[in-house]
Amino acid sequence: MTKPQVGIVMGSDSDLEIMVDTAKIFDELEIPYEISILSAHRTPEETAKYAKNAKAKGIKVLIAAAGGAAALPGSVAAATTLPVIGVPIKAKSMEGLDSLLSIVQMPPSVPVATVGVNSAKNAGLLAAQMIALGDSKIAGKVAEYKDKVKKEVLAKNSKLQKIGWDKYLKEKDAK
Hints:
By secondary structure, the chain is of the alpha/beta class. It contains seven helices and five strands, in the order βαβαβαβαβααα. A five-stranded parallel beta sheet has the order 2-1-3-4-5, with helices on both faces. Strand 4, helix 4 (97-104) and strand 5 (113-114) form a beta-alpha-beta unit.
């Protein structure tokens, strides 16, 4: 079994619906990862232990997702020297703005890189780019992924130019 390079933690199993996009990115780029449910408020000791032991397990980047008070990314960052990426999760109230503000307003000396609300895919890509700094194989996979995305966008633009916006939207809505 390959050692995980990324640790994904989320405050609740309800966050898994969003965080699966991170796992899909790592699956596509062939980056080993692990996923855990840990809570800054409900399992503080276990959360701190996980963050403190992550580096010794070979983890290079931690991704922490949380909604509402969104304390998990900060709790994780406080307990490790590894880079931490926070994913604010859209909760029932405030459209995720509360989560976003909780994560980006970290005190000095406890940095958390933060992606947009529910932007688990970007968290995965950012982690992959961090790992790619020291891993040429992953760097190549990230470059291939970005090239694939570029080709997809250019194909959509070509179709739009060919058939026009009204037909393009009708076809898109039909899917």
